[in-house]
Input
Amino acid sequence: MTAPALVPTAPTPESLRPKKVRTAVRRPGWITYGLLAAVLVGSVFPLYWSVLVGSWDSSVLTRDPMPWFPGGNFWFNASRVLDSIPFWKATGNSLLVSTVTASSTVIFSTLAGYSFAKLRFRGKGPLLIFVIATLAVPTQLGVVPLYLVMAKLGWTGSMLAVIVPALVTAFGVFWMTQYIGSALPDELIEAARVDGASMIRTFWHVGLPAARPAASMLFLFTFVQVWTNFFWPFIILGPQNPTLPVALQSLQAAYFVDYSLVLAGATLATIPLFILFLGAGRQLVSGIMAGAVKG
Amino acid sequence: MGPVRCPHGTGTGPVPGAASSCDLREHTTAMATTTSSRTAGSTPTPAKPRTPRRAGFSQRLGRWDLKLSPYLYISPFFILFLVTGLFPLFYTAWVSFHDWDTVMGQGEFVGLENFQYVLTSADFWKAVRNTFSIFLLSSIPQVIIALVIAAMLDQNIRAKTFWRMGVLLPYIVTPVAVALIFSNLFADQSGIINQWLGALGFDPVRWHAEVIPSHLAIATMVNFRWTGYTTLILLAAMQAVSRELYEAAVIDGAGRARQFFSITVPQIRPTMIFVVITSTIGGLQIFDEPRLFDQAGNGGSDGQWQTLTMYLYRLGWSQSDFGRASAVAWLLFVIIVIIGLINLAVTRRIATSGGKR
Output
């Protein structure tokens, strides 16, 4: 599933928003907290379940009553996962693919967004509309010819086949156009131009620094999206040289009934992004919310 | 040349809010002095060259720099889209008119035969039914639940960031892992969901064997991963609603529920429509979750949860028939475009009727 596109605007830090009269608004009662806690349980429970089953052996599922605390079998299951699928290779591949595509998406989108938002050129309006229109094109449906092209290039089974189609996205271009349009004053660019800076120098010293907050959010989004992506890597990569989701799929295909093994694998595969989420989840939240205000 | 005009009038562009600010004005006069400045918003006056006019090399270079740089900056996207987006889409049509084996390659031109095969196949129509059923079961409850959670988060709660991160957590889990976890939770024999149902006195549900239960289980996976994301989008829209409206409502004696239905929901309706439209494009292409709902990946013994993209994959990569797979791709493409147009029409009507209120 592709991520729903957002309509981004410059994120307003909480502190810059007009102060709401907080003192006048009473705090909600325990019912709200109770319901929110229930939602949180819904968010966390399936992941906890994965850890739980992954830390026992499969017979735990038939035990009555089931234990609700993790068992001591996780490392044993994890080592079986490492024996069954090329886990480290898959993690390395996912890291490579996500880092490269997120970086290039940020670079190319920032350049294009700067151009669309701040530079003047013939055909700009229609070209921008074209970019937005492509957001609605289900490009995933071009898999057959894309597969043929990759086969012709000899890229089948290689990370290039996953990286190259994802180097820049319409969403990224649109997001940066929106942000730079509202965050970068024209006067700054003009000042740089008056000082005789070339176009690319102006971009580098004026455009790029202004775009940094949105650029880091775009990096995060793209990283998560590419990391979790399955359909195209599944088609083009083999089980020998997979990304993490593809490796996880082959684990399931081989050991479906061994739930402890499969869910230990699911747990292991979730850990890297979970760590990222602990560090940057706050940014991810504000990125999604910043993107939505325009609606 | 005439006066330089702002190419986007504020608010009149086809895209609300897109690049509405006036652009850096450049001189397109023959002088091409790249060093002049002008205050944004003023009417153009002939600029005085700062240096005596000299068509030196660096100036000519500067002019090319000025003219070509914008195109250079946007070119990566367009080149990539042409090669990996637009070309494959049209080439899919070409392939769909041929006998095309995955290994042997292009065969004879067969006209509409592939389309005829697909459109008369029961599997295709079953896949259409499954795709729409799963899509509706995942999008409608998702928006409703997200609306309720967002309304709670919109209150003056403590530890805002904590709760927001909490609802977003499932978003970082790859759909493959989500599918593995949930296919265990929804196991037909000893799944924990069936155990809970049993404890409540219900008969176990055959989540994998039956049509609607399997759709429900798959929709639950989608909802698990995306509800938090949708919640945050709706929450952001709610926070943009003027608090004065609520104050006025309180003065008029409106309760919480009345405020929610008479102020919040109408005010954020554009965002809700936006959420539905964007989820349509991805939702109708659903593949990961149903593919991994069981080990075989064929959408159940009777194809009871095989979606259109799964059917496409099966034709192309299991049955080695790229011609038929391409026909499915085009049909799905047409379906998505039609749904998109319906969405657009409905949105426009709602938007205009909303304006009259």
